[in-house]
UniProtKB/TrEMBL annotation:
The keyword Transferase applies. It comes from Nocardioides turkmenicus. Signal peptide: none annotated. GO terms for molecular function: methyltransferase activity. This is Methyltransferase domain-containing protein.
Length: 229
């Protein structure tokens, strides 16, 4: 993307043996040239699915990375968007791509916002949170939303055991568990630690009402709403 060559195998190995924050600082300049960047078709499907739940004034992208979600918010909301991430390197890239956005460096498990947004989005970040960390994450998103506001989580259709992707993701998670058992600092990134029923239960526990909107050909958009009033 943008003429930037992707990371080498050596660079990916160094990242994988770093902490999450340091790893993404290292990867940031080449992140948009990797398969880990949220694809444009996912952003487009999310915008389409959100239309029936808006309009929205002010939006926040949690774990914004290089700012793929900011591009969505620039189209889906009427005010300048905000992105939050704890990687300074990723925020530097996001600032170059989205100079009009408000960018905040913070841990998503302790979001520093209070009733400031009517739309919060997050793309591909849930794997960076252990199951017990979703509570603080969702509590912070709930506080950041105005009453009646929406937390939108796009979810791709999960592969079946008969599909190669299922075993690829399962193998990746197993490799990460082995890595984290024998190496410090840990690098938390798992694909199969946030199944749909667990997400719904944690969102309900944070106070959200939860529904879904289909995204044909992609999966579904989880709409977690902070109750009005």
């Amino acid at each position: 993307m943008g003429g930037v060559r992707g990371p080498t195998l050596r660079e990916l190995a160094v990242q994988a043996l770093s902490s999450v924050e340091r790893g993404y600082d290292l990867l940031a300049p080449k992140f948009d040239a990797t398969p880990f960047r949220t694809p444009d078709w996912m952003l487009a499907a999310t915008i389409t699915a959100l239309r029936e739940h808006g309009p929205f004034e002010r939006g926040l992208d949690v774990c914004t990375g290089t700012g793929a979600g900011l591009a969505l918010l620039e189209e889906a909301t009427s005010e300048r968007p905000t992105g939050v991430d704890f990687s300074a390197g990723m925020l530097e890239q996001a600032r170059a791509a989205h100079p009009d956005a408000d960018l905040v460096r913070a841990d998503a498990r302790a979001l520093p916002f209070e009733a400031a947004y009517d739309l919060v989005v997050s793309f591909g970040a849930l794997g960076h949170f252990l199951p017990e960390e979703r509570g603080p994450l969702f509590d912070g998103v709930y506080r950041a939303l105005r009453p009646g506001g929406v937390f939108a989580l796009p979810m791709s259709r999960a592969p079946k055991p008969t599909q190669p992707a299922y075993w690829l993701l399962t193998g990746f998670d197993l490799a990460m568990r082995v890595r984290n058992a024998v190496w410090r600092p840990t690098f938390v990134m798992y694909y199969r630690t946030h199944p749909r029923p667990a997400l719904f239960a944690d969102l309900n526990a944070a106070g959200f009402t939860v529904e879904t909107t289909p995204m044909p050909g992609v999966g579904e958009l989880i709409i977690a709403r902070r109750p009005p009033g």
